[in-house]
Amino acid sequence: MTPAEHAQLALLLEVAGTPKPGNVDRDRDFPDLRFEHFLAGAIGSGAGLRAAEEGKPVGEAFEQAVEGMSHQEGGNTQFGALLLLVPLVKADELSPESVTEVVEETTVEDAEGFYRAFEHVDVAVSDPPEGMDEFDVRRGSSAVSALREADTTLYDVMELSADKDGIAREWTNGFPRTFQASERIAELDGGISARAAQVYLEFLAHEPDTFVAKRHGKKVAESVLVRAQEALQEAREGNSELVTAFADSLVEEGINPGTTADIVAGGLFVALERGVSP
Amino acid sequence: MTPAEHAQLALLLEVAGTPKPGNVDRDRDFPDLRFEHFLAGAIGSGAGLRAAEEGKPVGEAFEQAVEGMSHQEGGNTQFGALLLLVPLVKADELSPESVTEVVEETTVEDAEGFYRAFEHVDVAVSDPPEGMDEFDVRRGSSAVSALREADTTLYDVMELSADKDGIAREWTNGFPRTFQASERIAELDGGISARAAQVYLEFLAHEPDTFVAKRHGKKVAESVLVRAQEALQEAREGNSELVTAFADSLVEEGINPGTTADIVAGGLFVALERGVSP
After folding, report:
1. Angstrom distance (rounded) from CA B89 to CA B57
2. Where does the signal sequence lie (chains A, B) (predicted)?
């Protein structure tokens, strides 16, 4: 398979993994966001991912992937995952150094592509850092002029959000959790989507999900982490009931650890490229 | 979405529909044939489907799609579905007349592409019609010389198997069940993959599956039909237990109504092209 195909397959294997508390998976639909919306999102993002593979700039390929992803009625299905996958698809080799080269070379035009991507789909974002209001993605085209005036690249934009956003943190730190996820997926046994679900739970128990923190505050994100640790511990002792109860409670509370799922999708891509195969 | 994307999405929505007695679905894996093999097959067939969309001949595009589909360890996941989808993707409009034009225009070279496709994946086939041994796909390249000598097109090959094979019958009759499936999918309510699963059961209760007949004989195929009718009747009365029991029994008996699933995939494609959307 080509890198773009592996990226699409990574999106599919990610959503197929179950149980994945708080997210849509093979066994769980939400009322307005269903498994089939993710299937359509993965297919629709293909042209943008192929554009990245063929050498199109990050911002342009990302915008095209998000636009393609948006042709379904579930809304934002894979925005964060695509933000990881596009530079990974473009990297010469799958190493922290090589993907860092890709993201460090991004330009103001890439930042503009990223901002335009928000026009295709409703993405939850937090307030910009203090004094950075002019870069608020919710300002649309007026934010784009601010980017141009300040000569702000997409990498700069990510640096501004790295303290609050787990995807931005991957961009500015050599994609550490993405590579870690890929290694963990490669060392586990069984079906690939099942391994991905296991890694999702382990990651959720290891670091607070930034998407949850943005939407519900830091305290909630930390309590999700503690509950994930308890569920993981019980699961290791052979009891999966707590994982199910944890999943049900997250749904009830409307808590969706999306960033962790996005990082697992990035890890799946790296694992597939390195030879893990369904 | 483009026709090739709709074809890939049709493959995904088909396998996601559940319950789909006797087949892999969102809720059921077989030991050696799992949901994720179908996900990989749908992604891998993309380049061949795009080749069909761009005007490549049926045989060449089909072979490419099957080759791409085969990069997973589950074996044959979507051979029959792709044999329906490739001419559908190539049709000028989605009408029986237009797709019949595509299949009637196939050549000896298309037949050769079809025969070559069998080299990429292990497909269950029945004995060729009496006196047609030289066209047996299991003869490989020597069958190809026979095709050339007799000037046998892919349409001719399909005509030879139309009495035994539900896909070939679609080819030679204006894709009647494919269009019927699409209309039924469009008129039902709910998620698209759930509608597809419902149509699968209705079709299984209406005509014996030819893949089951090939592998297990006519009588078994007819008994599957009767049991599908009973399960459908109970399901209509609000009791889904018999559908589950029917699904379990088919798995136990190793019975896999694959042709019916393939035709539903074709119907999903037509429905998506006509505006049904996840």
Report:
1. 11
2. none
Quote the CA–CA distance of A34 and A37 in Å, as a whole number.
5
Q: Identify the three-state secondary structure at position B59.
A: helix
Within chain A, residue ranges assigned H as helices are 3-16, 35-44, 46-53, 58-69, 79-90, 96-104, 108-117, 141-150, 154-161, 166-172, 176-187, 192-204, 210-216, 218-236, 241-253, 258-273
Identify the residue among A28, A39, A73, A269 best suited for mutation to test binding to B, counting B beta carbons within 10 A and taking the highest.
A39
Long-range contacts of B219-228 (CB under 8 A, 24+ apart): B220/B255, B224/B22, B224/B250, B224/B255, B224/B257, B228/B21, B228/B201, B228/B204
Work out the minimum CA distance from B199 to partner chain A, whole angstroms: 17
* DSSP-assigned beta bridge partners for residue A25: A28
Smallest Cβ–Cβ distance between B40 and the set A9, A36, A39 belongs to A9
- For residues B212 and B204, what is the distance between their CA atoms, to the nearest angstrom? 11
- Check CB contact under 8 Å for A278 and B72: yes
Record: contact A46-B12, CB cut-off 8 A: no
**A73 lies within 8 A of chain B by CB:** yes
Q: Which neighbouring-strand residues pair with B25?
A: B28
pLDDT, tens digit, 9 for 90 and up, residues B80-131: 999 999 999 999 999 999 999 999 999 999 999 999 999 999 888 877 877 7
A54 vs B: CB within 8 A: no
Contacts (Cβ under 8 Å, ≥6 apart) of B39: A9, A12, A13, A16, A278, B12, B15
The per-residue pLDDT for range B167-182, each reduced to its tens digit, is 999 999 999 999 999 9
Both tokens of A219, joined, read: 């305290």
- The architecture in CATH of the region B3-273 reads Orthogonal Bundle (1.10)
What pLDDT digit, counting tens, does each position of A258-273 carry?
999 999 999 999 999 9
Measured over all CA atoms, what is the biggest interatomic distance in chain B, rounded to whole angstroms? Answer: 57
Tokens of A233: 């511990």
